[in-house]
Specification:
Shape of chain B: globular
Number of strands of chain B: 21
CATH class of the largest domain in chain B: Alpha Beta
Strand order of the largest sheet of chain A: 1-2
Order of helices and strands of chain A: HHHHHHEHHHEHHHHHH
Radius of gyration of chain B: 25 Å
Structural class of chain B: alpha/beta
Largest interface: A-B, 29 and 39 residues
Strand content of chain B: 15-25%
Distance between the termini of chain A: 44 Å
Largest sheet of chain B: 7 strands, mixed
Helix content of chain B: 25-40%
CATH topology of chain A: ABC transporter involved in vitamin B12 uptake, BtuC
Strand order of the largest sheet of chain B: 11-21-20-14-19-18-17
CATH superfamily of the largest domain in chain B: P-loop containing nucleotide triphosphate hydrolases
Number of domains of chain B: 2
Number of strands of chain A: 2
CATH architecture of the largest domain in chain B: 3-Layer(aba) Sandwich
CATH class of chain A: Mainly Alpha
Helix content of chain A: over 70%
Oligomer: heterodimer
Number of domains of chain A: 1
Distance between the termini of chain B: 44 Å
Structural class of chain A: mainly alpha
Chain lengths: 349, 535
Amino acid sequence: MSTAESGRARRWLILAGVAGALAVLAAFPLAVTDPAATSIAVFTLVFMVSTAAWNIFSGYSGYLALGHAVFFGSGGYAVALAARDWHFKGGWDVFALLPFGGLVAAAIAVPIGVIALRTRRHTFVVVTIAIFFIFQLAAFNLSFTGGTSGIELPIAPFPVATYNNPFYYVGLVILVMTIAMSWAVRRSRFGLQLLAIRDDEARARGLGVKTGRIKLAAFVLSAFPIGMVGGLYFYFLGQIFPQFAYDPLFDISLALMAFLGGIGTLVGPVLGAAVLEALQQYLTQSVSGSGTYLIVYGVLFLAVILLLPRGVVPTLTELVKSRRARAADSSTIEEPRDQAVRSVAGAIR
Amino acid sequence: MSGLLEVTEVSKSFGGVRALTACHIDVAKGSIHGLIGPNGSGKTTLFNVITGYERIQQGEVRFDGIEITNAPPDQVFGLGIGRTFQLTRIFSRLTVLENMLVATQRREGWLRGLLHRAGSSSEKHRATELLEFVGIARLANEPAGNLSFGQRKLLELASLLVADPDVLLLDEPAGGVNPTLITHLADRINELNKAGKTFLVVEHNMEFVMSLCHEVTVLSQGRPLVSGAPDEVRANPAVLDAYLGGEDDAATQLELVSEDPARRPRAPVAPSRTVSLIQPRAKLGGPEPLLSVRGVSAGYGGGDILKEVTFDVPEGEITCIVGPNGAGKSTLLATISGLLRPRQGEIRFGGRVISGLAPREILARGIAHVPQVHSLFNEMTVRENVEMGAFTVDDRALVAQRLGTVGELYPIVRERADEKAGSLSGGQQRLVEFARSLMLDPTMIVLDEPSMGLDPQTRRIVFDMIELMNRQGKTILLVEQNARAGLRLSSRGVVLENGIVRLLGTGREVLEHPEIGALYLGGTVSTGGAPSAVG
């Protein structure tokens, strides 16, 4: 088989895979009608979108951001306030506000990015955390956020049996959009420059890459989908409180999910989120003691770092590649394991 | 002739250390301009200043008549100045081809990058062409991290060419690269130069510089010493001084190259032959040396850096190893102290074989190693740092007693005991490192470039301390870039070049050997008409 042919075959295979996955996801609420399950699915979609969006910035640029809950909460508040003040009745109309939530999040990301991206590596992580706590504190204390009592969102008049489905499908659309965005970034010059920044920022600058603008663009881009699903999430819950809107666990979860799946890859973070969030929701619902999932998280995180330091997807890809190479009886140069460990250690840092 | 790249009156200091002082350099359009000078003379700093990695308060940088002083790196690149780095930098997790696509086209807006797909077919075509030009096209889809050191250098160069810059600044392109590849690299540079590219090349490999460059500037202590055609520079005594150090001592001024070069004996020594200046009596008789290195070959990764090195270190003396950059001096010290295992040969210390032992065992036998790079724990106090020197000793009283002794010898250890080591100057840190090495009461102290990065005054203090430690009974083995000062201090001299011992003798003999200068300015040592020399 010629390389062009195999390339075409590969492309068809990928297309078929994407279509299949979409079909399964679209059919899910029709097949599984248990509201408990579909509600888990909605939460899971929210995290799949968030992790995929977070990965566009942190995964590709190597800058570990631990403050994306700011965009999640701000998108939520934006949608909640808009729905209340502009007298939305509740129903499909509130979904139309989600892009507004995304825009607010993206607008907030601009000044945060300008400030935080002046710093590098560890300092950047600390600055994003600090900014996160400023937002949390503000949400508790400002009058327009309703303080600790939060804001109620309109209740959607969907039929009780299939109440979750509209939220599910809207979430699915946002997920498809986010993955498409991530894919487009990855194959663009912009994405390549982000990856170059991840490997060696100083050298990237020396090759003419306007690193400041590139990083800021990625930062803002990653805030938008998170703002949207922030709106979706709190609309689904019916109310928004500061402690849920600006939740430090949200920040850590995104990083953890991305690491589990494979940070910096297209689908890895999405899969990581799918597994971890679904598991967490399931554990919360079935096991008493709401903190159990934290222990599971910790154990999983340790296991991934020790056994699959680059995440599940890259490790599997490597495995498949080397199998195929062995089958074709041609030798490949395998990345030394210690280098892989170092690259993850670098990413954590 | 007005230069394409003009650096005028540029000064730059880091903390209190002046890296560049009123530095001036003029790179003519279409030339290959070499920049040489000893370690720490400011070559890389000059590159950093030109390309915007370091900001300056004084001076001016002009490119094609436009002032670019303190312009950020991406802008400098956009104007047409590309650079490589001393420690080759590539994007190791991108493929070779992707590495080639990172560089922006000149005057390209950043928004274009947002909307454009990486690597249109024409871009890929050009990238592949350039990879073919440097000779690594077959590796296009390999992750760049898998490339060898030399291939990385080629990739780094090729990735600059994508944007078609007018000027290329190359920081040690031949450093750590094998001879075949060096020739290949020189050919590529010549071809590009013929196509109109201007080069500014920092390089320690004198043969490379002298054969390639049209003009050479010698930097010394942050200012240009001489500028001119390679032959003129090679024949300038001041250049030798810059390389050999000891500019303060006119009495031992060696007139090495001022003699007519044509009269110099041409015959090179057969590569494996060592010229020994030691009298046979001294070589055979006398007590057994404290350290004896016999036929040691060692290296990192694939190749051998040291090739069958043989020499002795007599007890109670100071032995100095000198040689050009990349000769294997640090590797030799690392092999002696056990950080690197020799591939063949034997090292004996006090009559017992120590090659193959772990570093801590060798330390326990009495060899303390003070490495080239400053090795204090910055966040710990001076006292804690010195105590760390004896952390293998459990006897608290003994540690306290040694701390007292060391404190007498090095007052700084007492005076600044509670200050953080990181707050000391470079020279003071060196002294604390010496103090720390004494804590185990070693028989022999191995010093790697003790004077590196030190100003002349501190350097003298450091050398005085080395002499004092020696007088108190310590055997000292030292590697020194400042060859003149090092050899004057020493009773024995060893000249290393390309991993081979080229000269052995007393410090004075080596110092006064007429060919030592050749080692620093390219070429190989010749024997002065020794009958056995290859005709």
